Amino acid sequence: MNLSKSLVWFRRDLRAFDHAALHHALRASRQVYCVFVYDTDILDGLPRDDRRLRFIHASLASLDAELRRLGGYLIVRHGSARDEVVALANALDVDVVHACTDYEPAAIARDLDVAGRLQQQGRGLLTYKDQVIFEKAEVLTLAGQPFSVFTPYKNAWLKRLAAQPHALAAYPVDAHAHAFAPPSSAAALPALEAIGFTSGAAPLPGGMEGAEELFEAFVADIADYGRARDFPSEDGTSRLSTHLRFGTTSIRHLVRTAQQLMLSGAGGNGASVWLSELIWRDFYAMVLAQNPHVVERAFKPAFDAVRWVDDEALFAAWCEGRTGYPLVDAAMAQLNTTGFMHNRLRMITASFLTKDLGIDWRRGERYFALKLNDYELASNNGGWQWAASTGCDAQPWFRIFNPVTQSTRFDARGEFIRRYLPQLAQLDTKQIHAPWLVRPDVLAERGVVLGKDYPAPVVDHDTARRMTLARFEAVRKTAAITA
Description:
- The protein is an alpha/beta fold.
- It is built from 20 helices and 5 strands.
- Helix 14 (about 345-355) packs across helix 16 (about 375-390).
C-alpha cells in the first residue's frame, strides 16, 4: 500500500543511514516529513547546562544537513512530545507516524498515548526495532523463559544471529530519497538558548560524522581492546556509548564490522571481546523490557529488604569525589568535569558507594543518570544492580572490590589519578593509591596535608566490608537466598 504522507519521529536515532523507521517510511510513502521534539517531559528535569543537550544539538545539525543532502529536512519542535507529534501529524495531514521502538517504561507509556491519540484522528503509529539486534522475547531459554545470566544469553544470541544473519541487514535510505518532502518552508534549527539551555561545545564530536570518526580510530586499534579496555589512563575503549545512546551510529553497522574483523582475523581477540560488550547492551535492554520493575526495585525482589545506609554527608563525599580513596575520587572528578566515566571505574565507584558506604544503589544510579553523557536506563540500571549484588548475573555480595587493590592493579603508575587529582601529582607510585598510609612528614614534603589538600578516608574499607557482609547475610537468612 502506498500511503500518501508519513512523518518520521526521530528520538534516540539521530542519523539518516541504516535507519529502520526512515527506510520503511520512504518505501511506503509518496511524501515523508521528519521531526525531532525537544521533549519538555524529559528536559524539565535537567540542569540548564546539561552537556547532553549540546551533543544533541550538534547531532541534529548533522542530521538536518544529511536530510537536506537527500532532499528532505528536519522539523524541530519544543514541547511535550505527546502533544507536538500529534499536532504536527494533524497539521501535515499524514497517514502514519513512523518511529524506532523505545523500551524504557516511560517511553512505552508515551508511545501508547501518542498511538491512541493518533488513532482518534484516523492515523497510525508504526514502530520498528532499531536500537538493538534482538529485542524483548526474541532470545529465550530452551524453556521459553527470559535469561537472567549473561553467558548463556550470549551463546543463545550468537546462535540466533547465525541462524538469522538478516538481523544485521542494513536499512538503506538513499534509494527512496525521492519521497522526502522538500525543505521549501523549513525554519532554522532553534538555538539551545531558545529552549532554555546554555550553548557551548559538545562534550565529544557529535552527529554521524563524529561517530564514524571515533569508530574508525577505534577499529584501527581494536586488536588490543581486550587488554586496554581495563586501564582508564589509556584510550582503549571505543567512546561510542554516547553515539549509541542517541543513535548517531547504527548498532547493526557496529556488529557487522565486528563480525568482519573477527572473520578476517584483523580484529584479533579484541573484536570478539568488543562484540560481547555490544551483546551486554542487548542483554540489559531485554532485562528491562521483561522486568520493568528494575527501574525502582531490585531485579531479585528479596534484595529490596537490604537495609541501606542513609547518610547525606557520605553520599555528598562520593558525588563530589571527597572519599579519600584516590581512584574513586579521580573517577568522580572525571564524571563531574567531562560527563564520561571509564567502564572499569563505573564498577569501582558503584561498588564503593554500595559496599563501602552502604548507600542504596538507586541513589548512585540517579546521580549517574544526571551526569553521564551516555546515560541509558537499561545499561546503567543493569550495571548498578550488578555492582550492588541485587541484579541479574550480579557480582556476588561477598565479592567486594577493594578500592586500593583496584587502584594498584588498573592505574599502577597513578597516571589517571594524577590527571584528575593534581594535588596528589607529587606522590610516587606507591604513595598515591593510599596516601593515608604515608607518614605525614613525607606527605608534607610532597605538598599534601591530609584533611587540607586531600581528605582522609571517609570509611575504613575492612570495617565497611564486614558491615556489608552482615547486611546481606541478614537478608540471605530471612529470604533463604543462596550464594
